[in-house]
Give the backbone structure.
Amino acid sequence: MRVAMIGTGYVGLVSGACFADFGHVVTCIDKDPSKIERLNGGEIPIYEPGLDDLVATNVREGRLSFTLDGAEAIRNADAVFIAVGTPTRRGDGHADLSYVYAAAEEIAGLIEGFTVVVTKSTVPVGTGDEVEAIIRKANPNADFAVVSNPEFLREGAAIGDFKRPDRVVIGVNDIDNDVGQRARTVMGELYRPLNLNESPLLFVGRRTSELIKYAANAFLAMKITFINEMADLCEAVGADVQQVARGIGLDKRIGSKFLHAGPGYGGSCFPKDTIALVRTAQQYGAPVRLIETTVEVNDARKKAMAGRVETTLGDSVAGKTVALLGLTFKPNTDDMRDAPSLDIAPALIAAGAKVQAFDPEGMHEAAKLLDGVEMKANAYDAVTGADAVVIVTEWDQFRALDLDRVKGLMNQPVLVDLRNVYRSEDMLKRGFKYSSIGRG
Ligand code: UDX
């Protein structure tokens, strides 16, 4: 199959490289000349484990290329994917679809032969209808189908998630007529290399597919928020949230994943998608109150985390030095979007603390966003002279710290572990004042 991928952001780049690795011929298209130049020079603009090798191999074998001008690739494509950004629109929280619609306009003028136009970007219910209308209006004779195929990629594990997904959701309208059948065949062919017994292709209607994406992310965000509230309750009653998570997670109806209590969820998807779902639901007069509450509770939680440093210290942070370990919204990414550190660091600074930090991959981006935070070269430099260390993101290297060395470098041994990386008993034995999340 010939694939044109519009947008070389996170989703477009991972999907493009993985489709190429499945054996398809993929052209990735972007309007940003510096991005295309970097990609053509072999440089991957994002940090994602395994992606550099995957891109290099497929470029070398002639299945993957990058271009500013996608006209030819779109003309020749069996499937054109729209994988552009859908940021939160300023002011009203709806998803901003201007990039999606601009891509539809561009595709409309170029379609030749039967083409499946696939929305990969996370788009509100009904966007596929709009994309179809745009193309139909601009090119009434075009032979095409618009399909929804949401991604469920976790940053840091995106290649595995693409190649071994729990399921692939494909939204095709009028599956019983000729166009629907042809679209189904193209999509089936694209994903054929998956072991389809293990990773079923779920064919549903287009609006259903669009909603599945939001429902999945909202459910996961709600699950995290649920365990975070349980963690607070555990602290109040003297229970252990990790044992509660295990105790409920072994019930298959609940499941053990996404029950790690922490400082609140962040990232490029959950915050944006939960708000967009809330807005869509309000617009249709069918409010999703659980998700409205999830958004509120999570926002408040991230803001409250800095307060835990004072509680653990037993004193104000004014005039104290606080070290943050980890700044990205989760490990194995350089993504800072909606990271809890963006709430924690400014709150500490506002309370009079001096803040110094280290993150293995995120410091370049973090430096632009975190005014007044001193970035250090490694974890040990970051903790030097600190009155409190806060583990904000659970990078593996923070699980394996030389704790005696850390203690020796600090001004006083106070550790606030927002990811429950360490065990209370060990830390107390080592002489740390230690607090974690939801463990009594
Ligand atoms: C998420 C979805 O998992 C993915 O399917 C979707 O397509 C995009 O959004 P991602 O944002 O990359 O992926 O990260 P994820 O691993 O889901 O974590 C999101 C946030 O939740 C992070 O801030 C993480 O720290 C937090 N989290 C996750 C918890 O606090 N506890 C958990 O148990 C799991």
Observations:
- The mean pLDDT is 96.
- Residues 206-237 form the longest helix (32 residues).
- The chain has three domains: 2-204, 214-303, 305-435.
